[in-house]
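Hi, here's the filled form for the chain we discussed.

Project: internal
Contact: R.S.
Residues: 600
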Amino acid sequence: MPAIKPFDNITELLLNLLQSTKDGKTQLPDFQRSWVWNDEQIRGILASISLSYPVGVVMMLQTGNPDVRFEARLIEGVTLNKSTEPERMILDGQQRLTSLFQALLLGKAVITKDSRGKKINRWYYIDITKALDPNFERQEAVVSLPEDKITRNFRNEIQKDYSTPEKEYENGLFPLAQIFDYSDWMINYNEFWNFNRDKSRLFNTFNQEIIKSFEQYLVPVILLKKGTPREAICQVFEKVNTGGVSLTVFELLTATFAAEKFQLREDWAKREKELKAIAVLGNIQNTDLLQAITLVATHEQESSSISCTRKDILNLKLKEYKNWADKVTEGFKKAAKLLHTQKILSARDLPYQSQLTALAAIFAVLGDRSEKDPVRAKLVRWYWCGIFGELYSSAIESRLAKDLSQVLKWLDFDDSEPDTITDANFAPNRLVRLYTRRSAAYKGLSALLLRDKGCDFLTGYEIDALKEFDESIDIHHIFPRYWCQKQGIKNELYDSVINKTPLSARTNRIIGSNAPSVYLSNLQKGVNITEERMDQILRSHVIDPAALRSDNFEAFFKSRQINLLKRIEKAMGKSILSDTELIYESEYIEPIEYDELIIN
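And the returned structure, exactly as it came back:
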């Protein structure tokens, strides 16, 4: 049995193709962006057609599939007296077809832009003599004129006037808006020149070489048959529409829902404003919402497995969206509240955006059950396991699906821990190699120090309180970088998160490049902090005060490494190494055992 071909390769006369757009038989799907080509691009494609050069394949989708319905719109410039159902929709070629339609069939000045982006109105002509002269570049022969067909200099003085047909004949400028219906212009042109033999021959040559190029121009068209599924349309559009904007599942679903008279874009705009007012949700995207809704919608369907791939999102029904959108929006708010208790306070501090989606979906399904303390405690543990296990850095869609199912089951049955908890492991040496906030574990450790009431060295205030009052807080070196370099300490050690902690900008300025013994003395004397109180502040960052006061980087590093690992273990609710496992080895830092130097 021969394979079924999902598309047809055809060629179509340019005039017929443009006429079908004018009649509304060919339209645009709602996800296509607006027409944006400028004057130079329009002149370029007109020159290419006049030379019979290829201008690329046009891709269209046959309409009529009840499972793939998109809201349609006419291309810019087309007006119809009554609504018309399209026979096909343009997936690729919108810019080219709109430019050609407006320049050749619209019968009005084309509204476009100049090279600086300034809006202009232009008529398009072709200079008959230059078009036939091989010494001229064809694009030089394509002329664009202002709406009044008069060119002026910078003082607004008239340079050339082509505002009447007679002036067009006199200057040999043929209006491209009449390229498909040129007979009257040709007759009047010959009459204007009193049927001069040379002028008649010139126009006859122009007719054969230029006008016929437009009349006989064949456009290659790929027509996707109406059985093409939505996910294939999305993928095809992204592959071929290199000159347009990337088509997201949100745009495609917007067009699908619009066919049912629901404006997804407007609905998202309201939700986006509401959600982004919460600092930690500042980077939320429409696809995050759709992914969470798809998770809970597939969870509700007993006949299907939980999933949130692109295909699943594209198969989301409007009824499902309406049923879950408010619950999921509330789920994101509840997720933000939970993260706030863990001192993840802004979008910049968020370790994984994708884990936030999973958390919102879980909250949406739980409803009021999420308000119970045992539930909240389990969710906190699951969340930290995802961060320190760094499990949301790959295979995200499958992780999201498993977590929704497994976490909900775990909340009902204590003996069924989700894979995100059982699989999570934080290798001790990983701590030494955390250098920047690009790492989820780096951000997570910073949040843990805030959650566990780390205090600012200068003010004594808890760091999270300062953040909430817009104090400038960042991760700073404890042993200053410059001091470490002078001591010959390796940068992989002093730039590690072990030697960093959240502090205010004011505190960091006092620290400067001084040795810890010096800046601690300056801090204590400057604001009259007792040594006992300063030691309490240092311990709130799991720093050994004696090691810091004596500028002993080795002792500080060993002690803080162990105690940070203790914090991570506590957050994950599981052991991450045995009592005798070595933590770190280097030329500078001697290996230590797990139970050494514990700060309570």
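Let me know if anything looks off before we file it.
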